Amino acid sequence: MTYRVCFVCTGNICRSPMAEVVFRARVAEAGLDGPVEVDSAGTGGWHEGDGADPRTVAVLEENGYATGHTARQFQPSWFSRLDLVIALDSGHLGALRRLAPTEEDARKVRLLRSYDPAAGNDLDVPDPYYGGADGFGECLEMVEAASTGLLAAVRADVEGRAA
User: Fold this and answer.
1) Most exposed of 51, 61, 109, 145 (fewest Cβ within 10 Å)?
2) Looking at residue 97, which CATH number applies to its domain?
3) What is the pTM of this model?
């Protein structure tokens, strides 16, 4: 049975595609790329059909990640097929929980940085879109740090289903 994770930010061109690429790499390294599917979307459709922001692509490639992405908007109907919806900031968290058709679906929505014990109470991944390249590097650091804990949680869920 496939375990599905979707990362969500605002326009699906900066943070969520970055998280998707990083987490997909972690999943593959862990040998879970068979049972785990990873994708991303935005709360809005402004960039639907566009590729990732060139600064996102650059920071990913500079750090050895494969890229390739087409932006899309998150749809409430997706909740039924997703196991985990990962919001990149508290605004996305609230928007996604409001979109959730059921309480059970709303419980599937979590903040990415909640999986990083070093994050403390600062659980938002800031939007780097209006800033310079440094913001994209900082975003990548936050995504990578949280991916370790997220992978552990997903592995536990996948193994729990198999048991």
Assistant:
1) 61
2) 3.40.50.2300
3) 0.97
- CA-CA distance, 100 to 5, in Å (whole number)? 15
Cβ-based neighbour number of residue 126 at 10 Å: 14
Options 6, 14, 15, 55, the catalytic residue: 15
127 labelled catalytic:
yes
- The domain tally of the chain equals 1
Instruction: Quote the tokens at residue 154.
Output: 């997903």
Please say if 15 is a catalytic residue.
Answer: yes
pLDDT on residue 100: 98
Is 24 assigned a catalytic role? no
Q: Tell me the residue range of the domain where 124 lies.
A: 3-162
